[in-house]
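Exercise: predict the structure of this protein bound to S-adenosylmethionine.
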Amino acid sequence: MRREEPIGRSFRRFFCEKLPESGEVEIGDQEAHHLLHVLRMKVGDKLELFDGRDCSAAGVVEELLKRSVRVRIESKSRVSVELPFRLVIAAAVPKGDRQQFMVEKLVELGCTELWPVTYQRSSVKIEKKTVMRWRRYVLEASKQCGRNRLMEIGEPISSREVFAADVFAGDRWLADPYSSQPLELSGGPSDSLIAVGPEGGLTEEELGTAREREWRTGHLGPRILRLETAAMAVAARASLLAD
Ligand code: SAM
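Solution:
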């Protein structure tokens, strides 16, 4: 079901992976820490829980424990605000704080999956902890924007693997500032994988492989965008098409 009404912002949202239909549920770890020590919520306060797989529930704080919180579920429903197609962005990793910015904005714009890619000219190393951190950013952004499904963060992958022919069954696009065609995800919503390169751009070898494997290339206007801006611009085009 798609949401008919604008998202009500009155209740704080918390992630709860195993959300029962009714009764009580205990939330722990970072979510409980946020509720107890950052927001200092009280018994009787209303909140919203979501499970990351399209369901959310209205709830009330029942009991505050030392490291967890018991919540009474009042009603659970399936509420999807997802794009009607799979939108995967295979992006190089930006520097520093720009990583959080990129992840947040892609969640808000409805991107389905974000693959952290090492391109030949990538200057930022992807580590296991990068992926863990990005998953935390996904959770925080989903709480804020009312999305009930979590954008997936893929395992680190190389550009060689991304450009392999069988990596994706839908449309494959390369965001290329020097393409003669605009990057237009038109012709109806369809599953799309879009590659966004590093600050140094793609190498001739990568461009050649993409062409050989029949990737389409498209530009996003005459200005050179930072990679996180390019990823956002792509997602914004796709979500405008769909929403
Ligand atoms: N000097 C680099 C080059 O020659 O490609 C610029 C790289 S740009 C900072 C980083 C990535 O963002 C690019 O590899 C491309 O995927 C994407 N990008 C930036 N501006 C773009 C534009 N106007 N059109 C399409 N893609 C763009």
